[in-house]
């Protein structure tokens, strides 16, 4: 059985997040085509790792 902590006590145990991440930290400029690549999108990263490739279509608003 869980000990006698109240909900408020438990809520205080949750991690406190620091300031939101800087979105720009997730991007790098591809040295081949110059397009900005989102490193969270593995498919895009692998695509830009190819020696020769075209710009990817931008489908995000
Ligand atoms: Zn590229």
Rounded mean pLDDT is 86
Beta-strand portion reads 5-15%
Listed once per kind, the bound small molecules are: zinc ion
Provide the low-confidence segments as ranges: none
| Helix amount | 10-25%
Gyration radius, in Å? 21 Å
Strand order of the largest sheet: 1-2
Order of SSEs, N→C?
A: HEEH
Multimer state? single chain
N→C terminal distance: 49 Å
Structural class, please? alpha+beta
Number of E-state strands = 2
Q: What is the overall silhouette? A: rod-shaped
Largest sheet, described in full? 2 strands, antiparallel
Tally of individual helices: 2
Protein name: C2H2-type domain-containing protein
Organism: Sphingobium tyrosinilyticum
Structure commentary:
The structure is a single chain. The protein has 61 residues and is an alpha+beta fold. Helix content is 25%, strand content 10%. The longest helix has 8 residues. The N and C termini lie far apart (49 Å). Zinc ion (ZN) binds next to loops. This is C2H2-type domain-containing protein.
SSE layout:
Blueprint (H helix, E strand, L loop, with lengths): L6 H7 L13 E3 L6 E3 L3 H8 L12
Antiparallel strand pairs: 1-2
Bound molecules: zinc ion.
